Structure formats: C-alpha cells, structure tokens
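In response to a reviewer's request, we include the raw inputs and outputs for one of the modeled complexes. The two entities were modeled together in a single run.
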Amino acid sequence: MVPDVAGSSPVIHPSTVEPRPSGDETVDPRSSGDEQWSPDTPWTTVVWNDPVNLMSYVTYVFRTYFGFPRAEAERLMLLVHHEGRAVVATGPREEMERHTEAMHEFGLWATVVRA
Amino acid sequence: MIRLEFTSSELRLLRTLLEQYGEILRSEHDPVLERLFPAAYRDDADAAAEFARYTRPGLATRKTAGAASIAAAIAGDDGAVALDDDEAAAWLPVLTDVRLILANRLGIVTDDDEVPGDELGQVYRWLGALQEHLVDALETRADP
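The model returned the following structure tokens for the whole complex.
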C-alpha cells in the first residue's frame, strides 16, 4: 500500500539549493593524468556503482544496449556492484562518449576514461 | 502485453511524481541534476562541460518525452494499464531517474544507507518494486 501523497506537500519538489562544489569526491585512481599516452590510445566507458539502480536493471541495460550475452551482462553488473566500477566498452573517444551519453539516458552513472 | 494494475491513489502519486520530475528537469540548480546528468569526465572539467553542452539538451528532451509517455499511459481513471515491450522499456529510465531523485531527498548515498520507513521511503520502495516487475517481465519475454 502506497501512501497517498499526491495533492499534499510536494514529494520531490525542485530544490533551490545551489549545488555544492564537488571537491570532496573520491579521486578516480585512473586519473593521475601524467601517464604516457598517444593520440590513438583507446578510451573506455566506465559505469560506476550507485545505491539506487537495481541489479536486474543494470544487467538489462548492458544486455539490451551493448548486446552482451546475459552471462556477460551479469558479470559486468556484479563488477560494478562489488568493485565499484566496470569498464563496459573500449574504443575511440567519440564512441565512448556516445556510450556514456546512452548510459546517462538510462540513468546509470558513467564516465569516459582514458584506457 | 505487460499488464499493470494501479489503484487510484497510486495513479495520483505517479502523476505527481512525473510532474515534479519534469519540473526538476527544467530547473537549473537542483543538486540531483548532477546525478541525472553526471559529469562525463571526472578529472577534466573542460571536457565534462563540453560533453554536457552537446548532450544535455537532447538528454533532457528524451527524458521529458519518456515521462510524457508514462503520463499518457496512465491518463485515464482506469488503473489497468497494458504495455507492449517498447512501452514498458520506456518506463524504466524514468522510474530510475525518479528513484535517483527520491534517493537524493532521502540521503541514500551508499549501498549501506537504509531506506527510511517514512512515506517518501515507502514511495521509493514501491517504485523499485514496480521497476523490478517491469524488468523481470521484459527479461522473461526476451529469454523465457
């Protein structure tokens, strides 16, 4: 049974609070920036863990969007869940940006990371 | 078809959430926008800003369209809703985003954070159960 909150105070009303600067976020260990790389160094799309997305949904997204077999989609989902992140694609930067945009459309937290 | 059955209060709740989701997508300073439109580069603010400039308008348009498709599906007073696979798939990102917003309001930041037992927490759980049901239905049809 769901509480009837419609018509009462807003449930998720837009906040007017200014976003905080994100300076205290954990640092991506891959992001040191001073490693050797060349222009043809491949890039990756990384999906990060969050406490909201359902394991079944993450598997579904990996399977339907990337076309992974179910077992591979589940393996990557579990990597995200247990390790905090997983590389889900590797290739040219523009392609990795397209995948990242698609993940954002699905509501997954994804970033582009140099391989 | 995937068939769902909503009570009248559940229909009102969904409509309210969809309206507020739309307001948040149109807002500029809500902190949850950082999660709905994550920075694509964690260590390169310029690249992240450029990515956002190119992708965010289209993402916002498609997220808004997803919410509109759900609103249309539940526009009637009848709580019986039948969705084909494409329609059900279109519900999933919207349910995710609304759950991300609720989690933001509930302070759910890590896997160890418990969902509060208050009304908002119950709404969060209910949306999760609805999403799980739809994913299960789609996955079963894809691979019975």
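As requested, we also summarize the result in words. The helical segments of chain B are 8-26, 33-36, 45-73, 85-106, 119-142. The beta strands of chain B are 2-5, 80-83.
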